[in-house]
Design goal:
Blueprint lengths: L3 H9 L6 E4 L12 H15 L1 H7 L2 H4 L6 E6 L6 H12 L3 E4 L1 H4 L6 H16 L2 E4 L16 H19 L3 E6 L9 H4 L2 E4 L5 H10 L14 H7 L4 H16 L12 H19 L14 H22 L10 H9 L7 H25 L1
Parallel strand pairs: 2-5, 2-6, 3-4, 4-5
Antiparallel strand pairs: 1-3
Length: about 375
């Protein structure tokens, strides 16, 4: 049964789910990892399993009264197995997994987001669940300093509350991120183990291809060569999973009776090419083609011409023996800046025009004083 606190939190968010309590089904047998990553995960599990030995029988709990919980960071590129491993750890510990939906936890009302974060930790404690923050850089981001808007102050408060809850929590928390560099530096001390998820090597990729398929039920053509696929495509496990599902759909769509259908090598190749094409589209800039690029900003062009004008005057003055550089002509300044054409936008145009007049006046004043 779900925690009443969690039910209250979900109800307070208008029925949207702040977190999902998941009974884990996937294990470490369902994920292929680099040897170094697997060793780090085994160390993390050992820390959880030997918590009582370390802090009770060995007496360290008497010396360290806070920060007894175990917080882990899973950092690495997308599709490298971070989410599956969070579920696998919960499965290995025989605990449920409380998956945070941070988009629902975040509130437009001042002060509500930090309260929601604190409620999540209380729910995890009540359920004895592993608390899992996916895309954790959204909540554990670096705190702002200096002049701040209300949203910045709210984000800072949320990070402060999260750090405080980590100190008081004695359970297991996992933060998964593709952008660990965006974490606030204060998390480094409070996180017990940082696990780095690497892109799989060729041998790991071949195993990932195989583990995506059912060993008995998935019909494969005799020409399927997973070693060749892993050598040809240096991709993540997530990409391979997507390609396998696409290949199965292609094979299923072939004409003929279902009993005769097989997933062939050509289906896997075509599916992976689709996956790579989709990734290329997501990386594409709308202005990669110069013909479709927006025109240069007029003010930038004007300032470039102004710098060239200044450089020309200095060079001309230096060419004359013993002559001092002539001050910039205010009329030339106005002409250079005005040649940029009308700035885009009425408000911007008015501000820029006033700015041009002010700059020209200041240059003229400087030239008069120099005389």
């Amino acid at each position: 049964m779900a925690s009443p606190l969690l039910a209250f939190l979900n109800d307070k968010l208008g029925g949207r789910r702040a977190a999902d309590l998941v009974v884990p089904s996937r294990t470490f047998a369902d994920v292929v990892l680099a040897p170094a990553t697997r060793a780090q995960l085994e160390l993390a599990l050992a820390q959880v399993r030997h918590q009582a030995l370390i802090f009770e029988r060995w007496g360290l709990g008497a010396r360290h009264t806070t920060g007894l919980g175990l917080a882990f960071t899973f950092a690495g590129p997308p599709g490298t197995g971070k989410t599956i491993c969070a579920e696998a750890i919960a499965h290995a510990l025989d605990r449920p997994l409380l998956v945070v939906n941070y988009a629902e936890v975040e509130s437009m009302w001042a002060g509500e987001t930090p309260k929601n974060v604190a409620a999540l930790f209380r729910s995890a404690a009540r359920e004895d669940a592993v608390l899992f923050f996916d895309e954790a850089d959204a909540i554990a981001t670096r705190r702002q300093t200096g002049m701040m808007q209300r949203a910045d102050r709210e984000a800072n408060t949320t990070v402060n509350v999260l750090l405080h809850e980590l100190e008081q929590f004695d359970g297991v928390v996992i933060f998964a991120t593709n952008l660990a560099v965006n974490f606030d530096p204060a998390f480094e001390r409070r996180i017990r183990t940082h696990v780095r998820f690497e892109m799989p090597g060729e041998a790991e990729r071949a195993r990932i291809w195989r583990v995506q398929l059912h060993p008995r039920l998935t019909p494969l053509d005799g020409d399927v060569d997973f070693d060749a696929l892993s050598a040809r495509y240096a991709v993540s496990g997530g990409d391979i999973r997507t390609a396998v599902l696409k290949a199965a759909a292609m094979a299923a769509a072939m004409p003929g009776p279902d009993a005769a259908k097989r997933i062939a090598q050509r289906h896997f190749i075509a599916a992976m090419e689709e996956v790579l094409a989709a990734k290329a589209v997501m990386r594409q800039s709308l202005h990669d083609d110069p013909a479709t690029a927006p025109p240069p900003d007029p003010m930038s062009q004007a300032l470039t011409r102004l710098e060239a004008l200044q450089a020309g005057q200095v060079a001309a003055a230096s060419a004359a023996a013993g002559a001092a550089p002539a001050p910039l002509d205010p009329a030339a300044l106005v002409a250079a800046l005005s040649s940029a054409g009308p700035p885009r936008g009425m408000v911007t145009g008015a501000l820029v025009t006033s700015g041009l007049a002010l700059v020209a006046a200041l240059v003229a004043l400087g030239a008069a004083l120099a005389r």
